[in-house]
Design a protein that fits this description.
There is one protein chain. The chain is of the alpha/beta class. The protein has eleven helices and 13 strands. Helix 3 crosses helix 4 and helix 6 runs parallel beside helix 7. The radius of gyration is 25 Å and the shape is elongated. Strand 11 and strand 12 form a beta hairpin. The strands form three sheets. It has a six-stranded mixed β-sheet with strand order 5-6-7-3-8-9, with helices on both faces. The protein has a four-stranded antiparallel β-sheet with strand order 11-12-10-13, with helices on one face. Strands 2-1-4 form a three-stranded antiparallel β-sheet, with helices on one face.
């Protein structure tokens, strides 16, 4: 089963049906094309001459520090903000020119923009009615996102995670070929985060174009194929995840041996530095895994571990965006704890 997590049997069956349904279409061509978009607020350029593509069959992660212009770009793409220049098209058409957008472009930018007095089911019903979608799809979408039991509850009583799920149900109503999501995992529990990852990956493997922004870089590393990284409204890089991490991270070789000192001696000056992790493991810098393996074999040193390590996507991202951080923070400093109240005993404050 594709969707993992602890869910009720009925929800699991509904998800399986929906995933089979969603996988029927195939799309080709460059679906999302952003060309030279510029958006200014007064004299401040929130987005500055930005261009990128998102293609079918791949999840494209849209990354940038806070204030980099990601949400503004998405709003411009959907015609919610008027640009000062540039275009965004979906299969060659602007969003405003698409007659039935829910069937072609599903987008969720803010899960909070829902009438608080409506129930979750009625919210989806008016979306379906206004877009010519069969009412049966409403219950199917609710079941997919796990909201069937609370569908008749007013949205004002929903948690943030529940609102995110409701928003995703709305995105899925029309089975669109293009999906655009801004921070879809906000407020979701671990099962929900994994569900988002699995379903977006499934969308892409079925031929859909998926563009998703997130600050959860560990999740982006697991689901994204390509990255669009921006800073201060400008493109930093567009490439695959592997290419981005390779360009902006360090690599080293991790070794394990019952004779670590003999292994270090065998490698010798081929390694620029050695960082011992424990009595039998070390990280070797400046030398590749194949080189270490050959040197160990020549010296007859037994290896229990030999692997290439590299920085995470998070570390690569921080390195690539170091010069465009809008709100850079300083390292924490050690501050003295305030004295306990007069007359209290140490045990009252956790001392032992």
């Amino acid at each position: 089963m594709l969707i993992a997590g602890s869910v009720a049997p009925g929800v699991r069956e509904g998800r399986a049906w929906w995933l089979r349904r969603l996988g029927r279409r195939a799309y080709s061509g460059r679906v999302i094309e952003v060309r030279n978009i510029t958006k200014k607020f007064g004299n401040v350029a929130a987005v500055n001459d930005l261009s990128f593509d998102a293609v079918p069959g791949r999840v494209t992660g849209f990354l940038g520090p806070n204030g980099s212009g990601k949400s503004t770009t998405m709003r411009c793409m959907l015609g919610l903000d008027i640009t000062n220049g540039g275009t965004a098209t979906f299969a060659g058409r602007t969003y405003r020119s698409i007659r039935n957008p829910l069937f072609e472009v599903g987008a969720l930018l803010d899960a909070g923009y829902v009438h608080p007095g409506r129930s979750g089911r009625n919210h989806l019903r008016w979306m379906a009615l206004s877009n010519g979608i069969e009412m049966t799809r409403v219950d199917e979408a609710l079941e997919l996102v796990g909201l069937t039991d609370v569908a008749n509850r007013r949205v004002k009583g929903y948690s943030l995670g529940m609102k995110q799920r409701l928003g995703l149900a709305g995105v899925m109503l029309g089975d669109p070929g293009t999906v655009i999501l801004d921070e879809p995992a906000n407020g979701l529990d671990p099962e929900g985060i994994r569900w988002i990852r699995d379903i977006l990956t499934y969308f892409a493997r079925g031929g859909k174009t998926v563009l998703v922004s997130s600050h959860l870089l560990a999740e982006i590393a697991l689901m994204a194929d390509d990255l669009v990284v921006i800073g201060k409204g400008q493109l930093i890089e567009q490439c695959s995840v592997d290419q981005f991490v390779d360009r902006h991270s360090s690599k080293w070789t991790r070794v394990g041996s019952p004779d670590l000192e003999g292994l270090v001696a065998a490698v010798g000056s081929a390694a620029t530095s050695v960082s011992r992790l424990d009595a039998h493991h070390a990280d070797l810098f400046g030398v590749t895994a194949p080189q270490v393996g050959e040197l160990a074999a020549r010296s007859g040193v037994v290896l229990h571990e030999l692997s290439t390590q590299r920085d995470s996507l998070e570390e690569a991202f921080l390195r690539a965006t170091a010069d465009v951080q809008e709100y850079a923070s300083s390292a924490p400093t050690s501050l003295p704890l305030p004295p306990p109240p007069a007359g209290s005993t140490p045990s009252q404050h956790g001392a032992s």
